[in-house]
Amino acid sequence: MAERRIGIIMNGVTGRMGMNQHLIRSIAAIRAEGGLRLASGDVLMPDPVLTGRNRAKLEALARAHGIARVSTDLEACLADPGDEIFFDAATTRLRAGLIRKAIAAGKHVYCEKPTADTLEDALDLARLAKQAGIKHGVVQDKLFLPGLRKLKMVIDSGFLGRILSVRGEFGYWVFEGDLQPAQRPSWNYKLAEGGGIILDMLCHWRYVLDNLFGEVESVSCLGATHIPRRVDEAGRVYEADADDAAYATFQLAGGVIAQINSSWCTRVRRDDLVTFHVDGTHGSAVAGLTECWTQARVNTPKPVWNPDVPQTINFFEGWQKVPDTQPYPNGFRAQWELFLRHVAGEVAEFPWNLLAGAKGVQLAMAGLQSWRERRWVDLPKLEA
To answer: Once rounded to an integer, what is the mean pLDDT over residues 2-13?
Structure first.
């Protein structure tokens, strides 16, 4: 058994998602457990260098998690042949330019989504990566959620029969910043900084819909900026001009209809912060972040509409929880491990690549176009 070092440039991990999910719960956790064991018996040990603009923040984060290297000179890091992978979790507006530089430097690329803020840029990245012959991946974390993994098993078992429709509800109340601090960064609500829930969440819904229910063929989307004024991290009032809610309907291959509401202006009264309710000819399922419930055709109650008397059926009682039959590791870490195995040559195909990322951007752009033009927008096939 031999230990194999793999150098990773980690850019933008001082932010909430990059720090918590990608650094602490993924790369630092793999390191703390002695590395990633490969099928050959060798151990792959990630050796990250944390990059960003604020050296003090980088050094504090590195000390806290046993990381030896930090840098504010990204160009120098990209020029170092000792680091094979470039990872980016910084702001959307800068991502395409950074990925282009990484590809030009011969780095394998792994990044958050959206991969760009235009479809042209997102497709260009996929083409450049293909031409360069590098390995590349895009974070598609919701596919690794325990609830959606259980839902995928339910679908694959045939329990639902022919799927008819999907109804998704995502979101929660993000405080405006005056009564109490907002739990999302202010740039999320500024168009000039790449904000907006359509660009953010429709990239997620593309890979969820494509991988579980059928490829998205067209979209009708209505966006809204329900709260036009918020307070930022420094206590300053600012105009929020980006969409904070989106109400979208999707037509999928095979005739499945999906509806997903995404909102940072809703108070939760459902099973989880995101739920997917799937109806089929033989059964139905409802999945959240960690759990999934099912109801079979023969267990479906037979209500009668009568508004004059209280409802006697407890509809929640007719559902069964899908049990935990296997461990469900952190989804971000699970995808990191697959990508590392891909770079190491152990996993030949990595389907969630820059072209998959471009498909997410395509849907977001189509959603914005639908809202702007108040019509259905078709999605043509994409090729790198």
So the answer is: 95
